[in-house]
Design goal:
single chain; 145 residues; alpha+beta; 3 helices
Length: 145
């Protein structure tokens, strides 16, 4: 469902940008003001959503908690979005990019009974990475990457 929503959002933004480009090239009379209002509203909502996603990550609203029984991942407003018990994780996939311009660690928890859960950590040396690797090693899970 999330991929479909993201694809839909991208389509709406692309459509708005094409409409703006068309209006700049053709310049029909009176249409600019009529079309600019809904385009501005849609782009404003998408921009606010992106800004809230960035701000909530910076303020610590969207976090992943490591517990004895597993992981708890919170959503955009701090509610629990995913609970992943250690015994349901089969593989931990790890990918990282540690360059001066962009540093992140991406973990994908492959589960036996549900879709994988992806966790993105945006730091060069976060405390979360060794803690998660220790927890998965104690749980006897297979690591890739």
């Amino acid at each position: 469902m999330g991929a479909l929503l993201q694809t839909g959002r991208r389509f709406v933004v692309l459509f708005c940008l094409i409409a703006l480009g068309f209006l700049l090239v053709k310049r029909p009379d009176g249409v600019l003001v009529t079309v600019m209002r809904p385009v501005a509203v849609i782009l404003g909502v998408v921009g606010l959503r992106a800004a809230w996603g960035w701000a909530s990550a910076r303020l610590g609203v969207r976090v992943c908690h490591i517990h004895v029984g597993g992981l708890a991942v919170t959503g955009l407003f701090g509610q629990v979005k995913h609970v992943v018990p250690w015994d349901h994780i089969t593989v931990l996939k790890h990918m990282s990019n540690l360059t001066p311009l962009l540093s992140f660690h991406r973990f994908e928890l492959v589960r036996t009974d549900a879709k994988p859960v992806a966790i993105l950590v945006l730091k060069m040396k976060p405390e979360f990475v060794p803690a998660l690797q220790r927890a998965t090693a104690l749980g006897g899970m297979h690591q890739e990457g």
